[in-house]
Structure formats: structure tokens, C-alpha cells
Amino acid sequence: MAAITDPDKSLKSIPHHDQLREVFLNPPDVGGRYSALTYVGLVPGALLGIDLDVLLEKARAMVVACGATDPASNPGLALGIAMGVLAANGRDKLTFVIDRELAAFGPWVEQLIAESTGKETLASVAKRAHDAAPPAARVGVVPVDGEPIGAVSTYGNDRVFVRITLNGSAGPDPSIGSKVDARLAELAAAGHPVIRIAVGSKIELGAEFVRWEIATALASIVLGIDPFDQPNVEEAKTNTRAVLAAYESGAAPSGGSTAVSAADEAALGDALKAHLGKLVANGYASIQAYVAQTPARDKALSGIRTLLRDKTHRATTVGYGPRFLHSTGQLHKGGAPIGWFLQLIAEHPDDREIPGKAYTFGSLIDAQAIGDAQTIESHDLPILRINLGSDPDAGLATLGRALAAALGTA
Prior knowledge:
2 domains, alpha/beta, globular
């Protein structure tokens, strides 16, 4: 076994760390979302056979380009200013349309932007420290990854589209790319900003890591926030620990709303209809799925989010729990209070014990879901918890029908 970790405490917390085959100590001042070009990304890249010399050469070239003082010749500065100014003027839903060959870049940039920008402004923090708890000014750029592109009529006026293409690769179906670009041309003609980035080859993602890290930091400066902290991530962890402590003592966890069962489709439809009334203008809808990811569930969730987008004209995001707690989770709690949440949980018929613990892996996942729901509720944000039951695929099908009925499209 090998470890990639921070020095000192992180390393020493690993049992028998002195017996590891290799230890790569990462710089302790680099946050996880900015670590793609540290050991965190480079060691797995080397094991995959990626030419790190070329990757880093592309990254270094972007560093040099981002040192220019003229925004017209500085890729990171130009992108960062655009992101920050557009978000400050209401276009805060940064919607990515990425070629299939580069699709894995989407979740990475989603975490970078959401965790860096979704928080209270520095001016509000300073004022709160001086005064007696005034209202917090919270901002954020909402990255929208994986949402199928729609007709012009399905979008509000809060969007910015980012088209990332891989040059020289038409993909398995060249017509798909041309249809997407035709739709983006329609969106641009309708007044939606469209940012276009062409990546010459996959190895040039080294440069894109640099461009987007610099741009995100600069956009945060425009918005008046610190891009390098994540103050609200710890809230959900604290609530999760409390739930786990209850499990260990044999008590049922307290707090948090009761989940609606997908087994009762009529009751679920009523709950969804009431919940839809809590959407705010220029807000976004977030689906949090605490189920194992499969292609079938990806497809089901894509259909649900598209239905939501088309009928409510709100941006939609989908995250699998507990992964999203360290990506979009900071934005959910710390960003502008415009989120609307569906938390999807399921039963654990094939659960496993955790050696040395009084709870199972399923209980751990449930505790993370409950802790996050409690945190969202504590920020006065609307969240509806739905139990998909022992068959999540059947539960998702029921949810789709109930949502369609609640939206009046059944």
C-alpha cells in the first residue's frame, strides 16, 4: 500500500504507516480541490501511464500565460473576471456543456467552483464580528454539470454556458456535437453568455486545471470572498457525528425531517407539490442521491432533473452522497440562500458491519444524510427527504411519475 497525504497528523493517523511501501507527502497548504497537479493527481496519473512531463509542460505554459497583465492575453484572468462579474449581476448558474471524451472534467471543476465560491462575503464576516449578528451576505457561483441541454424556453436569465470541446474528436456520433452547438448558437442569440474553450488534446487538461484554479480564485475576489476556505463543510460533519453517537448509545437520532416513502405514490406527489411551492426566483434545484451510482440511476436522475428544469426553468444539479458533501455541499449551506433540495435515501438490505463500531456502513450513510439535512434546515432552506425503499430503481421510477403529476405533466 502507498499513501498520499499531508504531513504529521494525517500520516500518523494511518495504522502501521511506517510499513507503507511508499508515502507521498503533499504540501499542507494546498486544499484538496486545488491539488490536481500535486501528488494527489500526479501519482495516480503516473500509474495510469500518463506522460507527466507533457502534462506539466502544458500546465507551466498556462501559468506563464496567466501572468500577463492584459486580460485579453491572460486566459485565467479573463475567465475569472467574466465568472465573477456575470455572477455578481445575476448570471450565477455556470452551466457546462462538455464533449463526452472530457466529461470527467465536469465533476472536478464542479467541486472547485462550488466549494471555493459558495460562502459568506468577507465584508459580511467582518461586520458580523463587529455587530450583533446582522444578516449574512452570501454569494456563490452554482456550477451545473451534466444537465442535458434544452430549448431556449427552458432557461431563466441566470445562466452562463461554458462549452468545452476536444479538438479533432467527433466522438461516436458527430451529429450530437453539431446539434449541441446549434442549440448554443440559439442560446447566444437569445442573450445568454456562451464561453467557448477548445482543448487540443486530453493532455492539455493540465493547462485547464491551472486556468480554472486561477479563474475561480479571481472570481472569488470579484465576489468578495475567500476562495481557499470551506467553513460550512464542518457543520454537516458535526451533525453526522451527533447522529452516530446516538446510534452507538442505542438511541434513535433526533432532529431532521421524516422521509416521505416512495411506496405511497399519492402521498409522495402531495409532498412534492407542496415542496415545489418553496422554489425561489432564480434559484436552483439540487437532487442529493444517497444511493450507489449505476448507469440506470444516472439515466433516471437525468430524466428527473430535466423534467424539473423544463417545467420550473430552474437550474438543476445532481450529486451522489456522500461524495457531494465535499464538492457542492459547501455551496448548498454557505452560498446564496436560493437552493431547493430533494434528498433521496434508500434502505440497506445488504448492509455490512463496521469492525469495532456499533453501527453499520448503511447506518453511516444514513447518518451523513441526516446530518446534512439538519444542516440545510438550520439555514432555513427547503429540503424534502424521500425514502426510495429497498429497490432504489423502482423508487426512482415512482419519484419520476409523482414529480410529473406534481408539475402537472402526467
